[in-house]
Amino acid sequence: MKLTVKKDKLQKALGKVCNIIGSKSTLPVLANVLFEAKGGILTLTTTDLELRITTSVEADIEREGITTIPAKRINSLVSKFIDENVTLDCNEKHHTDIVCGTAKFKLLGLPSDDFPPPVEFSPIKQIKFKEVDFNRILDQISYAVSLDDSRKVLHGILCSVNENTFTAVATDGKRLALVERAPEEFSGQEGDTIIPLKSANELKRVLEKDGEVLLELGEKQARFRTSRVDIFTKLIEGNYPNYRQVIPAGFTKQVEIPVADFVSKLELVSIALSDNSAFIKMSFENGKLNLMATSVSVGEGADYINVDYEGEKMDISFNPVFLADPFRHTDADKIIMKMNDGFSPVAMESGDGFLYVIMPMRNR
Amino acid sequence: MSIIRVLPENICNKIAAGEVIERPASVVKELVENAIDAGADKIVVAIEDGGMKSIVVTDNGGGMDQDDAMLCIEPHATSKIHTDTDIFNIVTFGFRGEAIPSIAAISRFTLRTRRHESREGMEVLVHGGKAIAAAPKGCAPGTEIIVRDLFFNTPARKKFMRTRGTEEKHIQDTVMLLSLPYPAISFELHMDGRTVFSSPGHDTLSPRLTTYFGKEFAGAMLPVDYSDGEVTVTGYIARHGYTRTSRREQRIFVNGRPVEAPAVFNGIRNGYGSLVEKGRFAPVILFLRMPPAMVDVNVHPAKREVRFHNHRHIEHAVATAVAMVLQQSDAPTLSVDASLPLKALLQGAAVSYYPREEEPEFDFPATTESPSGRNESTADIYHVRVPAPESDSGGDEVYGAVFPATATGETAVAATFEHVGDLRIIGILDRTYILAEAANGLVVIDQHAAHERVLYERLLRASGTDHARQQLLLPLTMELSRPESMFVTNNHDTFLHLGFDLEPLGQNTILVNAIPASLHQNNAGGVIRDLLTDLIEHEAPGRTTDPAVIARAACIAAVKAHDPLTAEEAQSLLHQMAACELPFSCPHGRPTVINISLAELEKRFGRR
After folding, report:
1. ipTM of the assembly?
2. Nearest chain B Cα to A247, which residue?
3. Closest residue of A to B493, CA-based?
């Protein structure tokens, strides 16, 4: 394999694939990037056996071929190179000479035969989104996933298609975040798929402002394709809990909350809390939403914002982090909070298909 | 006059009874074993008031004829040994001929028995070892033994009986344990007229495992069937990743007899190898069969211990049996989750607190805090020298705790509160100890002990204002073993008080509706399971337990499941410790902090 490639393009491509390289792996070849030069295109692939990321760049190829090169090394080399072009020349022992301007390196790679081949799978449904839209969806919900829960299905994001509506759900068992959107295109069977959080995060990392992403979902595998990157991932198998069940059917109270105002007051009042196990007490009374924090070791704090609330006074307490999350991840300037009483689930909606359900804390 | 006397027979029997019968459960054990030896296929045990009021064991076994019924209450009368060589070929449970006379010596004892072929049975009444009456009587075939008012004539023993709940737990454990090797025999246990369990006979053990330990447990067990010619190992072992914090659930039977045998425990450990982390134990139920000549059961009157003639042989057989099953079982489902470390997957829900491997020993960059603790005023604080508390093994002035572990003095607490920020963290040693620089030397903090203390005080400060429980949006269903669910039911209010809302759903299932917010735990299931294992081992499930005891267990479980500390967490832990009332010892009384003064270092390096 011998080729010349623009340094900037190579650096960008390496940045896309190298994130999943772990420092300790049982298979040495997993610490390497697979380089494949063919028909004017240089393809770079990495995998951790759960996830496989592929991207390609245009290159001036003198001799086609395939090899693997240690990822961490070539990544730091290329990021420090200053000249415009990088030449890679690999011999049959998988030693690659890397030349950029006056700098010359030889990196010892491993045979490409050792690199795990991609897993074949047949998609049962295909969903297309604008990259920027899908990025937004992941942004709005992925913080609600917890990797600590013993229920493995909760370690991923549920992607469900029903009657041409795409629903993404994330929950840690205490709160739940959900987004409903109409996809650009959809074909195949309706149904549920659970995407591991790590794969969703990798996808989010490579999504850009323009272009579209195609989700090809199979039974156990999935493939996410953008114009620049292909991601293969294993899926989480199992049945996701029936999340519709936890969304209350009706509410007796509804309050519109100004996002920016609320977040700043919430952050202010939280300073009085000693640690993240404490709670924020919200108290709705005529035209006002009071925020109160008390802590044995620090002291206490309170502030309020004006809201449009009439009716009897109502107190409700939340974990401050859980309460703040939907407000921090929204574009909307108002979130509607729907409640029944101080100990039943509370819903928050921002009007763009986003719904958040949270369980209040109980103080006996 | 001679002072040495031969004891009269009734005293001899009481002494013998003391060795065999230490509590109502021992009576149940002896009687159930006799029933099994009698070839019964249905055994019913009914007790009242924890066995102190009455114990009735009914079987449909062979029964006895009238002469035997009279003879069996005589000491060392047994149907099971005829000559002395038989002692080395024991295949039955009882053989010493001690049980029945011993029980009869310390209770109001009734025996009703009838052989299947006889037309009438026999009833024998014995009170405190004295035969009161013996007469033919109509009764069902088999044997029924009624033991009333146990220990009525040995008040000293009676005084040492624990509460009813404890005795009930022991009786339940005894019957469960004895019934495991005999799936074909139907077992029933009733307490005060209430059915505790009823497990009909079946060809395999699995239905009984489900009845006793729940569906989840039964589902996690892999059958074992191994023989090396002489020794046969059968039973069930847990899959990888299914572990407990103690060895209590490693149940071993040798020739049908429940025993504790270090050789077998070693075999299990070797068989699992690195699949089970140190300090955790895979639940197993193993039945070893071997020629009676290879094992000596006549070591202890209660027959709890056995000796093997070649213990290495046994160890090897068990290890091979376990390893073979594990090799053939499905690999842990690594495909399920891409983002968990392998180690965590192998351990299932119970994630250990050991740091991930890539972390270096010293992983803290020096914090940016200015070492302002070097001024004189703080030096005074760390100068407090007090006699070390009892629990502090060091006890000498050199390695004494920074503050007394038992200090309640407001000055000490207030002082740390103010100045804890001045402790500059240098690093973490052995993933366990936070090393910090103080004004007068080095402070070593046991991070787990410290963390336990912080959580413990937070949980117990339930009545304070910053206590709350986080309700679960998706409540968690958990299957428990019988004693565990009994414990949860009996302590429901205490759990609620601490912030655990555990709702019994009938049978052995509970619904976890809320957990204490202060535990800040995401893996609620794992914590509750570890917590119950710990509590069941030490507490009576039938009794309400002190909140402090449950809180202590909860903290330990939560800390165990906690990930390694990051730099920020370590710093925050120090701050949280400062807010504790008794920051210098963990809930068990071990010290959390040790101070090595500069003066001490100087002395050791010969600088002065």
Report:
1. 0.72
2. B473
3. A364
